[in-house]
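thought: fold this chain, then report.
action: predict
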Amino acid sequence: MVGTLGPGLVNAVIALAIVDVPQYARLVRSVVLGTREEEYVQAARALGTGNGRLMLRHVLPSAIGPIVVQATLGVGFAILAIAGLSFLGLGVQPPVSDWGEMLARGRRYLPDATWLMLFPGLAGSLTVLGFNLLGDGLRDALDPRG
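observation:
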């Protein structure tokens, strides 16, 4: 996608968004299909609750937790994907800098100055790890069965 659109941060973000939208759509669909079969939703429907109120009061609160968790975990993927595209020269373009672009520039100096690749790599890895741990914590906190 980025190869077709051309290099740049905006094109990389558009390509990642296009790739990620089906994943979120499948998640929301599965949560909604599972929630509509729950007894409390069936009871609300039997009492004559309208579709709009049913969605806002019963189905949407059930879907928020998995969506937030998936979004948090998706941030780590997006950071790695943008950094990877920048490393290949398809993401962020100079003079703007990101971790992938820093790694690409530091690659030439690896034998003499390992820190030029070490610190951007560590920063990216720790950030992704932090978002993944946040997503795991949110999954545990928002799980109604836990």
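thought: worth noting. Residues 2-142 form one domain.
final: tokens above.
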